[in-house]
Amino acid sequence: xxxxxxxxxxxxRKKENIRRQISIFLLTFIFTSIVLAYYNGVLKSxxxxxESNIATVKTEIAKYRKSIQEIRRIKTALKTxxxxxxxxxxxxxxxTWPITMLDSINLLVxxxxxxxxxxxxxxxRLTIKGIALDNKTVADFMTRLEKSNLFTDVNLQTVNRKKVxxxxxxxxxxxxxxxxxxxxxxxxxxxxxxx
Length: 195
What we know:
The protein is α+β, with helices and mostly antiparallel strands.
């Protein structure tokens, strides 16, 4: 019988397996290193891009902060100016009120039947004193005051008999309030201003 020595063949096969495992390990290591290097490059480019975006956003924020401060300053100036306009409009209305009131009371007086002796104003309250021929004339005058668009809360304070020369007349005192002016539908604002 022929004997074949298989020991060197097994040793050669073992060496071949070890060489194959080392080459697979080396190839896997090289491939993993290449993949990691590529991924690292991609991440670095993304980081650089994000940092540049952050820098541009920070410069825009700084620019917008300046704009916001300017807008706030303009809004406060506009608010102050609108308050001044409101005060001017109120003063203008109050300046014309006495003339309007005297003119309207002159039109409301019943001619040749009554005469006014005094007219007093304290804030919105108005006190009218006068002499009339009779009670009906005083009542008609009060009705005219109520129907006018300038007065509210018309109240008769006193009516007493007064003798003037040889005539028996009626002295009266009436109080009323100035009707509040209807505020305009639109607030006074500066032309071209936006809110």
